[in-house]
Design brief:
The protein has helices spanning about 1-5, 105-125, and strands spanning about 35-40, 45-50, 55-60, 65-70, 75, 80, 85-90, 90-100. By secondary structure, it is an alpha+beta fold. It has a five-stranded antiparallel sheet with strand order 1-2-8-4-5, with no helix packed on it. Strands 3-7-6 form a three-stranded antiparallel sheet, with no helix packed on it. It is elongated and about 80 Å long. It starts with a helix and ends with a helix. The mean pLDDT is about 85.
């Protein structure tokens, strides 16, 4: 890995590596303007003005449970460089929002609610002799 990185060090700022096959992008020399407008632990808002179709890569850890929307439409998050999050964005101005909504949290909340309802039901309807 170190030899590969050393051989491609000049490309590391403009290319990302993935283990999945992604659609090919045409070479583009028009600059992009990407600004993070909001950043919290569970939500990131990004304003992207793309010179060409490309991928916005956020240098945050890729982890299941993150969702992405581009201009309000669901978008797929790709694992880039084995650690980062990337989303395809077409040419032009866009709003990219990534938020953390793991299913485990919703499942845990559902089970907790069931437990509370069961406890309340037992307290109300338990017959004492």
């Amino acid at each position: 890995v170190r030899i590969f990185i050393n051989d491609h060090l000049d490309q590391m700022r403009s290319k990302g590596f993935t283990q999945e096959k992604l659609p090919a992008l045409k070479p583009c020399f028009t600059p992009d303007a990407v600004t993070v407008s909001k950043y919290t632990g569970e939500k990131v808002s990004i304003a992207a003005n793309m010179g060409c179709d490309g991928m916005v890569i956020l240098s945050d850890t890729y982890f299941p449970g993150w969702r992405a929307r581009v201009d309000g439409k669901t978008a797929e998050i790709h694992q880039v460089d084995n650690a980062l999050r990337g989303v395809y964005v077409s040419q032009g101005k866009h709003e990219l929002i990534m938020d953390y909504r793991p299913r485990s949290v919703y499942f845990g909340a559902f089970l907790t609610s069931l437990g509370w309802l069961g406890a309340i039901g037992l307290a109300v309807f338990w017959k004492r002799d």
